Amino acid sequence: MSRIFEGNRLAPTDFFESNHSNSREPYTISVKHFPEDDTAIPHYSPAAFLFVSNGANGVFQMDSRSIRISGKSILYIPPNRIHSSTIKKGEGIFYVFKFFPQQLLPYLGLEQILNANDCTLYGEYFYTNDRFDEIEGEICRLIREDGNELACMQSVLRIMELLLPHLKRRELNAPLILRSKNDYLKKLIAYSEEHFAEGITNRDAASFIGYNDNYFCRWFREMTGITYTEYLMRLKINRACVLLEQGHGIRETAELLGYTNVSFFMRKFKSYLHCTPGDYRRNALKNDPAIPNEGGFESK
Questions:
Q1: Which residues in the chain show pLDDT less than 50?
Q2: pLDDT given at position 192
């Protein structure tokens, strides 16, 4: 099974966060281009992420902070850290090296190496351009040598060696109140992903975590950079992409997302992705002939 994923067919959130948890495949690399603006909504994962950006421009939101990326840059996000991103349309490219530390550490003997250097993969995020060309070179080697276990493991070890200065153990200095807010945000994300198709509102979400409506709206925007209403809409659109790719019809997709008016769903979809659900589905069909035809339902 290839560890390399390339192309823009998948929805942004699914592209970054599809759970790949096979003990024989402890990492994946996704190659991302940006013919249009690309937004990943607030999410977290048991995986760690190394975003290697060559020429992409945008913003990551994390811990109430905005991290602007541009030029040649590297962003590391540890496991279970809530983050979101907006990358602008342009010529840049992203290599997303996603790995599960619990699988990778014993596989390579990395745990002993990190401990010997007083380093950890579970610490703080960091943003740097240090040793960029070498790290990008090893990422490209992983892509080129996909399937060659020895060469790939050598490259993974080399990437970790290059990152060691940034992986030093540090005391977690996040104030208790910020850690509490992050815990609330994780609970809210789980709640939203379970109930978003049921017509939940700001008031429902605020009540779920025990905030009043006004404070909730300010708090969510501070933590994520977008409003909760915008988050719900982007969550629906991302799920719509996944459902369409799985072979669901347009009308069925709209109903699964809680829409009673299919035309309204189609307009919303086009306003976010600049193509109709039908166009998106046909593109998915070209890439995966196993997706069944929809029986003639067309979108204009």
A1: 1, 7-23, 289, 294-300
A2: 95
CA dihedral of 176, 179, 180, 182, whole degrees rounded to 10 = 160
Instruction: Give the pLDDT score at 177.
Output: 57
State the Cα angle at 269 between 248 and 57, rounded to 5°: 115
Q: Which two tokens stand for residue 118?
A: 């007083």
Q: What integer pLDDT is reported at residue 182 of this predicted model?
A: 80
Count of residues making up the chain: 300
Q: How many Cα neighbours within 13 Å face the side chain of 256?
A: 18
Q: What is the 3-state secondary structure (H, E, C) of the chain?
A: CCCEEECCCCCHHHHHHCCCCECCECEEEEEEEECCCEEEEEECCCCEEEEEEECCCEEEEECCEEEEECCEEEEEECCCCCEEEEECCEEEEEEEEEECHHHHHHHHCHHHHHHHCCECCCCCCEEECCCHHHHHHHHHHHHHCCCCHHHHHHHHHHHHHHHHHHCECCCCCCCHHHHHHHHHHHHHHHHHHHHHHHCCCHHHHHHHHCCCHHHHHHHHHHHHCCCHHHHHHHHHHHHHHHHHHCCCCHHHHHHHCCCCCHHHHHHHHHHHHCCCHHHHHHHHHHHCCCCCCCCCCCCC
**pTM > 0.85:** no
- Interval 45-68: pLDDT, tens: 899 999 999 999 999 998 788 999
What is the pLDDT, as a whole number, of residue 16? 38
d(CA 260, CA 164): 53
Tokens at residue 176, please?
């208790």
